[in-house]
Amino acid sequence: MLYDYEGKCEREVDILIESVISGCEIKIAVECTELSKPVGIRALESFKEKHRKLGINKTVVVSHSGFSKPAKEYAIANHIKTLTFNAARSENWSKHFAPLKKLAMYGRSYKLAQLAIDCSAELANSGFQFGLDTKVIINGALMDVGSFASKVWSESNVAQSHFKELRENELGGAQEPWAEITVELGKNHTFEDRNGARIQPDKLHIRMNYSSNYRELNPKPVEYDGKQYLAGGFFDKKKSEFAHFALTESSGQINGSMEFSSNLIPD
Q1: Any idea where the Restriction endonuclease type IV Mrr domain is (predicted)?
Q2: How far does Cα 194 stand from its chain's mean position?
């Protein structure tokens, strides 16, 4: 979303590409249309005016149905780049983009559901009281055990390494989907209870409830100035949710940018 200072509101462009050329920052806006008939002058005028208000330096319009002859002439006169989407056939996909044909995204939130520790029988009988008010000593400072668990969870990379299992568990109809990991602490972390008693547990068990929002991105190959991009996204007007991305490939490395609404991540 970009801010329209004339209209005093935020406005959306389908794909925003930001770059630096000769030390100058430029913004390229790509607008995609799915009209059943060729795009006319009126649509191009609308995009041009919107982009002027948003400080866009270059306007690119992509149409599934092409452009009328007057629209093409208008585009040339006003320095608007017009493109037609390649048909989504396998021969139109570069070898680098082919694995991304079914590209999708998700937003997910986790909530701590349960914590438990394993320790020796001697420590278990020491009177240590484990609870959410327990602290963990990190570099001489105290961190509450909930924050420590969230940090450990994030560092475990479970969202990526077990994506398929987490998705199937959630979409399979589980009322409150959850996931659990066990972390070997190796007695390298000191825990302190409310009374100041300290122990060094062997393991920490973390259970998280989670909620996700899955979205298809419908990627399409687009050629712009002789360079191939992969572009796509969605806009859900009813939920005010959106995401747009543009990727390019250079020497086998894929780079790009993505913009999405914060409400894609469930509360």
Answers
A1: 11-83
A2: 39
pLDDT score at 256: 80
DSSP symbols for 243-266: EEEEEEEETTEEEEEEEE-GGGS-
Helix (H) or strand (E) holding 60: strand 58-63
Regions of the chain with pLDDT less than 70? 19-24, 34-35, 85-92, 223-227
Give the H or E element holding residue 71. Answer: helix 69-77
pLDDT at 91: 47
Domains in the chain, ordered, with CATH? 2-102+217-264 (3.40.1350), 106-214 (no CATH)
CA distances from 54 to 21, 25, 73, 181 (A): 19, 14, 24, 46
**What integer pLDDT is reported at residue 257 of this predicted model?**
79
Distance of CA 17 to the CA centre of its chain: 16
Looking at residue 209, what DSSP letter applies?
E
What confidence score (pLDDT) does residue 13 get? 83
Output b/e per residue, 19-50; b: 16+ Cβ within 10 A.
Answer: eeeeeeeebbbbbbbeeeebbebebbeebbeb
CB-based contact 4:29 (threshold 8 Å): no
Residue 66: what pLDDT?
A: 83
